[in-house]
Amino acid sequence: MSNPSTDLARAVVTVLVKDGVTDVVLAPGSRNAPLSFAVQDAAAAGVLRLHTRIDERTAGFLALGLTRVGARAAVICTSGTAIANLHPSVLEAAHAGLPLVVVTADRPARLRGTNANQTTDQVGIFGRLVETFDLATGDAIPSLYVPGGPSHLNIQLDDPLLPGDRWSPELEPGRWPGRVAPAGMESIDLGPRTVVVAGDDAGPRARVLAENANWPLMAEPTSGSRTGDNALRCYRLLLDTDLGRQIERVVVCGHPTLSRPVSRLLAREDVSVVESFGWGVWNRRPFAVDGHYLAGPPNVSVADDPAWLDAWREADRSVARQLDALLAAEPDLTPHEVGGAVSRAVPPGGLLFLGASSPIRDLDLMAASYVVGARRKVIANRGLSGIDGTVSSAIGAALGRPHGSRNLALMGDVTFLHDASGLVLGPEEPRPDLTIVVVNDDGGSIFTMLEQGAAEHADRFDRLFGTPHGVDLGALCAATRTPHWKVDSLPELEHALASPAGGIEVVEVTCRRDNRRDLDARIRALTP
To answer: How high is the pLDDT of residue 414?
Structure first.
């Protein structure tokens, strides 16, 4: 026997499936029971895949990771503080332009403002960045296709909350059309000394533009365009040199976030900046822009003088040789060498998920040279570049790409600890093959390289920024029955990477933090 809440929940799940949602991540609760039963019945019917997590923040980032690799995912939670725990993943989705679907159970409208248990104002809780559809029994359920970011369905559910029967949905799963950039490719003239900066999610068109025009390509690891012969490995070390000061124009693609030298380049008054279309709720750049290419990047009709590109290639090769020699001479394993080893371990068809902070920047200097068309996917949460939810996002990305050859993740110890609950999976949950490499230097090493890491702040640095924790990562992994290796040398790391155990495993790599500021200064000094 049916009831209004059950009918509404089943109607919501029907729209999810018809709008192309393939995966639903569920966090347990009482108020969302009608939705829980409905998605379980739909999963049993084979029209979607169900994942459950006990932590809403983990659930949200798991759904985000699934969405980032092209699966269409929804996350469902109960009312009250549960919904607030979704906020970090929703913000990341909004700023990265990812169509995450958020379905939150709510009390009936008559209980709002009454101090009823687990009742708060959930309508518009994610702010102006996300539109909320507040739905009660009898309301029409809107389409969930929001090209620019996440959508939020807030579902008012009243007693009774349990279904009186089992649902056998006969649904034809829909297909989400994917993100579509605006049409109207334009052309750009040659002339000024130009480079292409490809930030996160720039896509392969940035590489094609650079190659067609004979321009240097400064591509971040997660740009989707760091392949081919124009991609420079050590570009950020070259931008403050005489060669870098000759740049007259920059074509910006995607969302560049990693490098202060790139930020300084884009802020230069003597440099013209043109940009292509980008995803996310805020498309205005934090630097002056002289031109826009809506379908970007633009076309070029002829190639530029190859001498400009050749000069950059020669300088890049020289600095790369010096960098490799410097790191090889270090007595201890460096985080940069860890990044290089992980990058080399990604096979054609493989996935690499990068954590924020130091690891993605270390790998940026050490990334292997990938050939075009090998379909390696390197991604990260760069919408807001937070360290939260990284373990769960990496697991979600691996689950959402089932036909890839191998899945790896690289992150720091603080990032890993921030989402350690991501390793808590129930016995019936889908588990991907994923090797998580954790660079453990017992704290936040990125701050040692910033202003607060200067010697005059040394007496307060660790308490405020370094935050050493002393956590036994092996014991933490054992608590969740996650296989764990601990290594402290490059040969050991390469052996561990070459011998995956299957399932989710953690490779902990111990490194020093006390010499990080000095090492960074010596790397930057490689160029005059």
So the answer is: 96
